[in-house]
Write a structure and sequence with these properties.
heterodimer, A: six-stranded antiparallel β-sheet, 30 strands, B: alpha+beta, OB fold (Dihydrolipoamide Acetyltransferase, E2P), five-stranded mixed barrel, 2 helices, 33% strand
Amino acid sequence: MHYLIGNIGHLFVILSFVAAIVSAFAYAQAQYASARLQTDWLVNARVAFYVHAVSVLGAGVSLFIIIYNHYFEYHYAYSHSDKNLPLHYLISTFWNGQEGSFWLWMFWQAVLGIILMKTQKSWEAPAMVVFALVQAFLASMILGSVIPGIDLKIGSSPFILLRDALDDPIFKMNPDFVPADGNGLNPLLQNYWMVIHPPTLFLGFASTLVPFAFCLAGLWQRQYTEWVRPALPWALFSAAILGLGILMGGYWAYETLNFGGYWNWDPVENAVYVPWLVLVASVHTMITYKNSKTALKASVILVVAVFLLILYSTFLVRSGILGDTSVHSFTDLGLSGQLLIYQFFFTGIAVWLIVRSWKEIPTTEEEVSTYSREFWIFMGASTLCLMGLQVLIPTSIPVYNSIVEGLGVTSNVAPPADQVGFYSKFQLWFAAGVALLSGTGQFFWWKRMDRGNVLNDLLLPVLLSLLVAVVTASVSKVYNVAYGLLLFAGVYIILSNIIVAGKVLKKNPSLSGGALAHMGVGLMLIGILFSSGYSKVVSLNNSGLLISKQFSDTGNREHLLLYLHEPELMAGYELEYLGERLELRDKVGYIKRSEVEILGQPGGGKSPTEPLDAIAQNDILKDGKKLYARGDTLRVHPENIYYEIEMRKNGKVEATLFPRLQVNPNMGLLASPDIKRAIGKDLYVHSAPLVRDTIVWSEMQQVRVRKSQEFFVNDYVAMLEDISRVETVAGVELTSSDAAVQARIRVEGERGSYFAQPVFIILNSAQVGRIYDEIADLGVRLTLLNIHPETEEFTLGVETRQKDWVVIKAMEKPLINILWLGTGVLMIGFSIAMVRRFKDFRKGH
Amino acid sequence: MKKSHIAILVGLAAIVAIVLTTASDASTYVTFGQAYQMASAGSKKQIHVVGQLKKDSRGEIIGIEKSPDHLSFSFLLIDENNQEQKVYFNEPMPADFLRSEKVVVIGNYQRDTFVAQKILLKCPSKYQEEKLNASL
């Protein structure tokens, strides 16, 4: 038992909580203290924040030591990791649980806090008060301390011992019991994106605090206009990182999950999408303010709204309130109350500060002209906010239900049944609106427009976009009005920004960030339009066979059943299922499952991800090179089964896909797709997570053959190649009075030869034992039944079963790579804009 | 009237429209009885029904019928009013289906069968084992 490390970790958490409060208090004092005392308070506040930051780091290191050293006496290590995870997955284990992800958030904010301390002078104290308070709230979430007397538990500690977390009788018998291995990491999370997606997302979350802190500091200190300059570059940083984090999640879902897309409008996804939209809107109003001193009030409201929405999304995801509506919200740790206090505390302070200073925030009384850039930006920002609201309101239905039920009224409102259809049909129009507004706004941004020249400047891009959109629409058969409009809007925003960028780039390349970012959005919209709107299930079961009368109503199925080596036509391809494959532990690539004999059962009492030894049944070749010789021991991951599916067009192999099914004793069956990527469209294939029924073997047929004589097995040509005496038989103890012979039978399959090696044993010269051998790919099982030395013949038992099969679903995703390309362009645009605004901020000093 | 006032009015109208469309597109949690009545009254709306899989006295799940080609299946679900209903799903059986302690089906009645378009599963301990699977 390693109590010390847990106690140290817990102590660090407590220290970080206390130090954050001390720092907030000292910074607040510094703000009000006389000039003589101010320096002292500042020093105290800084020291306290450093202590806080070091404690946060210390808590993280302690938790990682527990995970890294597999101290399964700790609940966190036991429930999220196991001994076989490689280092990078041990790292993702770290933020797999709620407590670890709170830590990650806190860590980033501690880093950002230190950067602010170092880079800000006049803003340091008031902004850091907000920072330190937020940190104190976050630290309280993982405090795990019980207030004596009132028996109130605050937070959920990652350092809790297994025996305190689980009420298992084993701990009554032996309090020092430590499990031999942990529960492991959800296999869907064993993906490289899960190593970097959460840190990126939480850096995005954390960075929204920076503009919020500046804004509150500005309101508090009645410096209503000055806060925008330091806040703007951080808002850009935040928009870039949060956007990147969200899209990484989408990309992970596309590659790993099997719902066939990158975005599912799940409440958990919506909860980060809405703040991001509002964040982007706030960036635009802040830029407007910097240029023309308008939209300051809007900026204040939006910047505050972003952070409050981040808190709200945290509440939604972590309080358990989404329980029935989301497939992947966290389990409830009993933090709902604390999360609500967190939400209300900052909402209260922000609302109070805004109300207090509302009349004092400078505004322009002048009427906004339709020909001004401010007008277009304001319209765009408003549309973005409405776009967010359209998602926020339905996502909040569970919250509405709890409130109404809290008032004693039963509510049976459920979220829309078809989430994807519901959100898409509205978001589509908003997205088109935003694109049209921002495309047009670009022209107003860079040039004074009036009634005279507006037509001149806009006519060309509008006509050109119309032309491109109409041609594209007719070529790719876009016959839906809304889709057509979105296509036009996407083309328009790209073209108008190319025109603008052409002019701006000549003058000053550092100003091109905005144009690039908008082009990226246009590309993304087009990518989303085609990959989602024209995603097509191609694995239709058109056999027209009615399975049974009661199953007849719903027409064609969207899955396809492939029997081994029985090619089927799909989407212009000929598909052939080639059999089950295994992944090698120590070498790259797949091997046939039938080529090896796996020793032991996957997850047999041990961890499900334990690689197992296997014996090569024949020489294992790959691309003509011998990887393993017959009889070699190799290591495989038996829990992952890959289904090799060959796709041919006109007899030529176009692609070989390996969709995966993971048999995980703890988590059931999990399917992951394989994707045939192409610039025009991806083909996305996954196998259905189906449990194989118990195999039924046919009655045994007997054949009597000589060596080298051909015979038929389930219509395949077979031959008894060799028969030899063996000294060892796996799983049987042979003594000197026993004898064992092994037959080697070659069966010619559709593709290459297979070998079956049944064993015949004579124990104590009297008893006979037979060990059959199965060729799974061909669905045959061979037994050496008898040896007839007098005629040099052998009797073989042949059993057959239904051929191996796989059920797949395949989808076409047109132009999905344009979406990923657009994401990249958007990120570059954000980065250029951010660098420019940081430089601008430095000049201001 | 100033342009900003028009903008505010348009914004408010949009918000009202959003709330109304949400209300009209929102689904409801109902029992099989209510769902049947809705369908009989001509409603094609997809609704949510929460229930548990039917089990025999030994706790084994019963009433599951798979199509021979594995591409669809049907099962018996008992709703919160203890009404039993056959539910048909035109997709292969989801992984973990048999382990779920609560099933939410989203769909509607088509004649006497409830056809689910989507199934949400509530598994008791999917990612956090509540029992130790270890021995001394």
